[in-house]
Amino acid sequence: MRTGLVILTTASIIAATAALAHKGATGVVLERMQGMTALSDVLKELTPMMRGQSPFNADQVRAGADVMVTHAGQQMTSLFPEGSVQPVSKVLPSVWEDWDEFVELAEQLELRAEGLKLSADVGLAASQPDQGASMMGGGMMGSENAPAMGGGMGETSEIMTVDMFATMPTDTAFAAVAQTCSACHQKFRAEDD
Length: 193
Known about the structure:
Elements: H1 2-21, H2 27-50, H3 58-70, H4 73-77, H5 94-97, H6 99-119, H7 162-165, H8 170-188
């Protein structure tokens, strides 16, 4: 009984915090803010696992990837009708000025999230023979030995397909997802105050 009260209290605090963060947002802006929060929550939930700080759970990775897929691609871009700016929104005008690039990033996020789901069967790089440290835990991320995950924005590397992710360590696929989120935020989201 006491555990249920703790869970209920925690859930109430989280819901109140999310509501406060989106206070004043309405309509499509509120909808997209809720979608972005869902994406952020998945990244925060999976990051410790990718760093080897919590046990790897393939089902949790697949569930998180499913959430990402539902908020990416066309679903994401549909929440950005031109001029949909409210004071609480962090969207920059560059979304509409560079619409094709924004669409490309939304599609990449969807593809990479689908790939992350498939890679859950592989496990972390550290658990693979001859792979060394995990990508997020100080291994190859950002190094010249990291696999190419290009697909636009001036990159010359090979475009990754969903099937390519199926044989990739999960933390490598996760790094690709995080890279896509970061690229989008750098160009299309205002800095936090």
